[in-house]
Structure formats: structure tokens, C-alpha cells
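Notebook entry, structure prediction.
Reason for the run: the old model in the group folder had no record of what sequence produced it. Starting over properly, with the input documented here first.
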Amino acid sequence: MGYPCLGGFFGFGVLGIERLRGYIEHSYTGIERTGGCIEHSPKCIERMARAIERLGGYIERLAEFERLRHYIEHSYTGIERIGGCIEHLPKCIERMARAIERLGGCIERLAEFERITSYIEHSHTGIERIGGCIEHLRQCIERMARAIERLGGCIERLAEFERLRHYIEH
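New structure, fully documented this time:
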């Protein structure tokens, strides 16, 4: 699909500036929404990690363990997808910044220019915040991996218990 030709904005005056402003505001909204999702993810992952740690000795079947492992893998896939989107955002913001620089002489009011600049600076701050959240997510995932490793021993003990119970019953 591609991006609209920025040169096309020069012939439209205020209309072109309004379109560009709309694109920038839409991008800013998407960044904020993505940031909110990522900020909420560590809480969910921490809650899952605590639940896994509490489960320790209570897992009764290997199938239950497999289901938990599937959830964790699915979460990791989602985090990788979000990471790809975040890696693409700086390129988009740089492209918007270059477009704004080229439009410098066409912007008629300083207040409008200041508002657009504020969106870009706020977007950059949001990306830095998202980067910190991604690092926190990585730590949470490592914590869950350690909890799962501990659960492996519990499952082995459970299997041994099941064998002993089977011998006792027969």
C-alpha cells in the first residue's frame, strides 16, 4: 500500500496541513493505545507467574501443565508481535518529522506547528516508556520460565506418586 506522497500536500495549503495533522494525531493515538496495552501486560504476566508458583504441588495431571505452557508460548508470540510494531514506529515518526520539516514554510500558524511538535515529542516519550515496559516483560517471562522449571520437578514427583499409587492399587 505505501504512504501518500508528501509532495502532494504542498498544493493543498491548509487542507494538506489538516490531513497531515490528522495522520499525526491518529499515529499518536495508536502509540498511546499500544503503550496502555504493554503497561497492562506486566501486571497480567506477574499475576500468572504468582499463580504458577502457588500451584507447585497441586498440579495433578501433565495435561494441565501442557495447557499452561501453551498460554505462556501464546503470550510470548504476542509480545514478539508488539515488539515488531514498536520497532516500526520510530521509522514512521522520523518520516513524519522529515515531512514537517519540508512543510515548514507552508504552516501558517505557529500555534498549529507547536501542537504538532508536541505530539511528536510526546510520541517519542511514549516509545521510551514502551521500551522500559518491554524490558520489564522480558524479566517477567524469565521469572515464569524459572517457575515452570520448578514445576517440572513437581510433575516428576507426581508421576512417581502415580506409579506408586498404581502399584498399591494393583
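Summary: Residues 16-51+60-169 form one domain.
The old model has been moved to the deprecated folder.
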